């Protein structure tokens, strides 16, 4: 194989590898952000720890225990600390997140959410 052919092959492989790295959206790579159209919860305050991402429509949902929450939907989301065994929206109502907002410390552990159309 000629030196020119080796150089072109190396450049093509490097281009494919670099192209793949740049094709990844920044929000997918950053665990401290929430993708557009999703509700996210983190196990720690200030969007730290393990992130859970949910696709939601209006309704009531149990939520993985979260200490911070982001609402990147067009819906209004009410955060709850649900009393175990009582069902949805029963317990302590923590706060309401408007569309495209977040809370780094809702005051207690979030264990359920209600989602309302605007």
Question: In terms of topology, how is this protein built?
Answer:
Elements (H helix, E strand, L loop, with lengths): L2 H21 L2 H4 L9 E6 L3 E7 L4 E8 L1 E4 L4 E7 L8 E7 L3 E3 L6 E7 L2
Antiparallel strand pairs: 1-2, 1-4, 3-8, 4-7, 5-6, 5-8
Protein name: Peptidase inhibitor family I36
Keywords: Signal
Task: Briefly summarize what is shown.
The protein is an alpha+beta fold and 118 residues long.
Walk me through what this model shows.
With 118 residues, the protein is of the alpha+beta class. It folds into two domains: 1-30; 32-116, Gamma-B Crystallin, domain 1 (Sandwich), CATH 2.60.20.10. The protein has helices at residues 3-23, 26-29, and strands at 39-44, 48-54, 59-66, 68-71, 76-82, 91-97, 101-103, 110-116. The protein is globular and about 35 Å long. It starts with a helix and ends with a strand. The model is unreliable at 3-29 (pLDDT under 50). Keywords: Signal.
Percent range for helical residues?
10-25%
The CATH superfamily label of the largest domain reads: Crystallins
Number of domains: 2
CATH 2nd-level architecture of the largest domain: Sandwich
End-to-end Cα distance, whole Å, is 65 Å
From the alpha-carbon coordinates, what is the Rg to the nearest angstrom?
Answer: 21 Å
Largest sheet: 4 strands, antiparallel
Provide the succession of SSEs: HHEEEEEEEE
Please, how many helices? Answer: 2
Shape: globular
Determine and state the CATH class of the largest domain: Mainly Beta
Number of strands: 8
User: What is the arithmetic mean of pLDDT?
Assistant: 78
Protein name: Peptidase inhibitor family I36
Signal peptide: 1-28
Pfam families: Inhibitor_I36 (PF03995)
Keywords: Signal
């Amino acid at each position: 194989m000629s030196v020119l052919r080796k150089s072109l092959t190396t450049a093509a492989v490097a281009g494919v590898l670099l192209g793949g790295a740049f094709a990844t959206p920044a929000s997918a790579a950053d665990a401290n952000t929430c993708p557009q159209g999703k509700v996210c919860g983190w196990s720690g305050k200030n969007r730290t720890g393990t992130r859970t991402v949910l696709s939601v429509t209006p309704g009531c949902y149990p939520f993985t225990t979260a200490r911070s929450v982001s609402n990147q939907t067009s819906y209004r989301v009410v955060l709850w600390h649900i009393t175990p065994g009582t069902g949805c929206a029963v317990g302590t109502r923590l706060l309401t997140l408007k569309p495209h907002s977040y809370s780094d410390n809702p005051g207690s552990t979030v264990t359920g959410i209600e989602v309302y159309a605007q």
